[in-house]
Each structure stands twice: as structure tokens, then as C-alpha cells.
Amino acid sequence: MIKYGLPLFAALALTFAVVKIVRSQPVHAKLTPPAAPPSAVYTSQVGAVGLAEAESENIAISLPVPGLVTRVDVKAGDHVRKGARLFSLDDRDLQAELALRQSSLALSESRFGKLAMSPRPEDLPPAEAKVRESEQLYQDAAVQLNLIESVRDKRAIRDEDLQRRRLAVKAAEARLDGAKAELALLKAGTWKPDLDVARAEVEEAHRQVERVEADLARLVVTAPIDGEILQCKVHPGEYAQAGPLAQPLILMGATARLNVRADIDEQDAWRVKSGAIATGTVRGNSGERLPLHFVRVEPYVIPKRNLTGDSTERVDTRVLQVIFALDRGARVYAGQQLDVFIDAGGQK
Q: Are strands 45-54 and 258-265 parallel, antiparallel or unpaired?
């Protein structure tokens, strides 16, 4: 038993261990991919990753000034016309300032109108009456002087009385000249420099109103072009920041026809010719090939930003961006990735 039993027991234990180890190994089922990978299209081609975008390029709507959002007039998917209201900011302080500036403008206009209409018809009769009164007083003083000067015997009058009568005539004459001058000044109307100053005050008040109206207009954000709202990340009650943002408040563009921005590795950039034909396939639907029409080449090579997530993908590289146009009606959404194959024209 010892001679044959112990080896037999060892053989059985080894067999049991091998069976358990084999059964404990995971079974990898042979699965077919949900979609076939994209295949070559041209004999000599350059592959690139493309991103669908609006024909006008994606426009990130921003603000010139920050403020509290009080009204949003659009949502994602809306088609808007150029100049249509997108959203508005709180404008209560500027509305109050506008009312103040408008009242100042009305006051300046009233002051200028008063000066421009001077003199009033009612102002002339009193001035003319004053001239006639001065004339009568002058004539009375002249008569009194003639009477005292007509006395033949100078001893009958005092020299003091004669001098007073003469001074009275001169004073009456001076009052008459002053009354005539005041009447002439009244008839001449407002002095031109005074009118110019009043007119300048009206213009300044008008500019103040325009400045406030311009500030109010900046609080209403409107569509710069005819297009579609791709994203709307702003809501009433939120505080909107000014300037470029990591997440645009509103993203829009002209989507009647989409373009594809293809990133070509700088090592293959020399193989792509202007006007080259290309074909694109949407991720997950490699069986449908979409014709792409050359639009232009962005002449500046930039660092790569559009990443696919592939473990073998190079990220420390620069790319040349080539713009292609999709046919109208292509079943592609803005922001969707495509695999782009560009005919290299036999170049190697």
C-alpha cells in the first residue's frame, strides 16, 4: 500500500488541482464589436479626427458688463434672427439715471427755447412807454431851462438855479438815451454767444441721455447672426460674468450647413493639398460615409486640443486644422466627432 498508494494519491491530488485551476480561469467570450471600425477609403490617405461645428463657427455669446440676469428669451434648439433678444440684465439703476438725464435735457431745451424766443411781444410796450416818458421829462427839463435863460436881467435869477436847470436837462437826456438803448437791446433779442452757450448745454444733455441709453442697450444681449441656439447655460436670477468664460453663457451658430474641423498631425500636414477630397464617418456608424467638401486651411498650426481618449493617442503634438463642409441635411449634430479620411493624392 505504501509503495503504490502514496504515488496514486499524489497523482489524484495533482489532477484535482489542475482541474480546479482550469475551471477558475475566466472565460473570455468572443464578442463582435457593436460597430465596425472605420476602414481605408483611398489608396493613399491621411486620417484625422474631425469635430462638427456651425458653418459660421460656434459663437460663444458673452457680456461687456457683469450683472444679474432678469430675463432669458431663448432655449437650446431655438432658431433666432439677427438682432433677436437672447437675455437681459438688471437695468433698474440705469433706468432711474435715464429719467434724470431726460429731465435735465428737457430743462436745457426749455432754457434755450426761452432765449431763442426773446423778446416776448409783451416786453416791448413797457420799454416803449419808458422811452416816451423819458422824452417828456427831457422836454420838460428843456422848457424849464429855456424859461430861466430867457430872463434878460440876470440879477433876477440865481446862478445856482441856472446850473441846476442845465444839469436837469443833461440828466433827462441821459435817461432818454438809456431808455432808447434798453428798447433797442430788447428788440435785438438774445445775444448770440448766450444762444451758443445754451445750445451747447442742450447738446451736452442730449449726449448724456445717449450715453445712458447706450449703457442700457449693453444690458440686452442680442443675436449677432441668424442661427440656432446650441447651448443655453444662463437662467434668470443668476449672476452673469463678463468676458470669455470656460462655459459660454449661450453658444450659437448658423447650422443650416455644418462644417467639420479636422485636426491633422503636423507630421502628416505636408501630405494634405489644398482642395483635397475627403470622406467622414460618424463615430458608431462607420458604414455610412459622408462626403466632405474642402473649404479652407487654417494656416496656423496649433497645439492639439480635440482628444479622442484612445490610449495610443499622442497628446504632445501640434495639428493643422482643415475645414470641410458637410452636405446639407447630413445626419450630424454640432459637436459630434467624425473620423476623417483625406485623399493624399498618391503622396507617400
A: antiparallel
